[in-house]
């Protein structure tokens, strides 16, 4: 699938989520909608990324990104080494989406990525002063520690299952590798919000062919996926498999050592549902294997784990929201459960348009209350 077709499909899929990510229409003249008081306006286009300020005070900052261009875009705040401090993906042309970041004093870069490829259009951002970290709140600190324990269990198993997958690929066992592909990816998808923090490692592991910029080397799960299901020849994939396991080992080490903030949990829970809406529902994530529902389920599970870690805080600050989240997660899990098949899931191409629509509807309904968590955590 071409990048332009993929982005068009993603944009259409995301349209149903507009109410759940603080999205508003762009100004008719193509400029950014003025940000609400206390929010930093970002005017993104196909050729520019205009951030309203170049310096902010340490603490939490809310960026309101308006896409006035013709391509779906992304917005990132990077620390040194392209460590992702905050991100929001799939910003459809004509809409504004928000993301909240907790930024200690230091030097950062903001970036817009028209077409969701490449290094992006970057600007320097200086953060000055001191602030009281969100984890100074004991319950938020406990939530972050709880989520880190979850990430460790999942990342440790990711390493084991990826090694099994790599061993099968290198041994030329196509059927075994096909069987292991969605299993290994289940653990990857659960931890992806943390894995995405570390610069180029995420695309090295998980880039789809349509994600690549011109001349960019393709490695990782989806390169091998294509060879397993389409070319049906993995005889030359040994180096790709070796790089995959090496990159996964690095991700596991970095994920287990990472210092997370409560906003990583809140933003990550939402990001995982956006992934479902723009990749799994459309079938473009695992376009050759059609194992998208394994990823879909893992995204929902990973999102729920982040929300559950924050539950004590949410029960104290927004008890009605907790009830809604419980109801919406249960509805999503019930609908997804109708597509279980043995120890796994039906293939994406086995589902009808009506069945995919039902799945999309329950994810949209869940994403809306999840979008409310980050502002509550940032209070």
Describe what this molecule looks like in 3D.
With 379 residues, the chain is α+β, with helices and mostly antiparallel strands. It has 2 domains: 3-131, Cupredoxins -  blue copper proteins (Immunoglobulin-like), CATH 2.60.40.420; 136-377, M75 peptidase, HXXE motif (A middle domain of Talin 1). The chain contains 12 helices and 12 strands. Helix 3 crosses helix 7 (262-280), helix 3 (174-195) runs parallel beside helix 8 and helix 7 (262-280) packs antiparallel against helix 11 (353-370).
Short description:
With 379 residues, the chain is α+β, with helices and mostly antiparallel strands. It contains twelve helices and twelve strands.
Please compute the radius of gyration using only Cα atoms: 20 Å
In DSSP terms (H or I, runs of 4 or more residues), the helix count works out at 12
Tell me, what is the CATH class of the largest domain?
A: Mainly Alpha
> Termini, distance in Å?
43 Å
CATH superfamily of the largest domain: M75 peptidase, HXXE motif
* CATH architecture heading of the largest domain: Up-down Bundle
Domain count, please report it: 2
H/E series, N to C?
HEEEEEEEEEEHHHHHHHHHEEHH
Q: Please give the number of β-strands.
A: 12
Low-confidence stretches: 1-35
Q: Average pLDDT value?
A: 91
Portion in beta strands = 15-25%
CATH topology of the largest domain: A middle domain of Talin 1
List keywords for this structure.
Immunoglobulin-like; A middle domain of Talin 1; five-stranded mixed β-sheet; alpha+beta; single chain; 2 domains; 379 residues
């Amino acid at each position: 699938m071409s990048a332009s077709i993929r982005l068009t499909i993603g944009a259409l899929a995301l349209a149903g989520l507009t109410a759940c990510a603080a999205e508003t229409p762009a100004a008719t003249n193509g400029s950014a909608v003025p940000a609400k008081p206390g929010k930093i306006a970002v005017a993104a286009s196909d050729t520019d990324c205009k951030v309203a300020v170049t310096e902010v005070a340490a603490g939490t900052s809310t960026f309101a990104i308006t896409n006035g261009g013709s391509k779906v875009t992304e917005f990132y705040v990077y620390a040194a080494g392209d460590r992702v401090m905050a991100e929001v993906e799939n910003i459809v042309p004509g809409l504004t989406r928000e993301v909240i970041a907790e930024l200690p004093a230091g030097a950062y870069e903001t970036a817009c990525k028209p077409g969701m490829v490449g290094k992006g259009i970057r600007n320097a951002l200086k953060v000055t002063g001191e602030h009281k970290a969100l984890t100074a709140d004991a319950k938020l600190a406990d939530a972050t520690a709880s989520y880190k324990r979850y990430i460790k269990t999942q990342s440790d198993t990711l390493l084991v299952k990826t090694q099994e997958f790599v061993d099968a690929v290198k041994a030329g066992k196509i059927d075994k590798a096909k069987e292991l592909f969605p299993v290994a990816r289940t653990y990857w998808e659960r931890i992806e919000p943390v894995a995405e923090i570390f610069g180029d490692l995420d695309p090295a592991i998980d880039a789809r062919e349509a994600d690549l910029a011109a001349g960019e080397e393709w490695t990782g799960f989806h390169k091998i996926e294509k060879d397993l299901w389409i070319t049906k020849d993995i005889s030359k994939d040994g180096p790709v498999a070796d790089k995959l396991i090496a990159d996964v080992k690095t991700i596991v080490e970095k994920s287990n050592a990472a210092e997370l903030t409560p906003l990583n949990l809140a933003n990550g829970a939402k990001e995982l549902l956006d992934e479902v809406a723009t990749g799994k529902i459309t079938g473009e994530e695992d376009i050759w294997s059609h194992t998208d529902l394994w990823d879909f389920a893992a995204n929902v599970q990973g999102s729920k784990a982040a929300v559950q870690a924050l539950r004590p805080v949410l029960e104290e600050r927004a008890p009605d929201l907790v009830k809604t989240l419980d109801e919406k997660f249960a509805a999503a899990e019930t609908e997804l459960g109708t597509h279980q098949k043995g120890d796994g899931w039906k293939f994406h191409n086995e589902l009808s348009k009506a069945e995919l629509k039902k799945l999309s509807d329950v994810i949209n309904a869940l994403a809306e209350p999840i979008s409310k968590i980050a502002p509550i955590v940032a209070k």
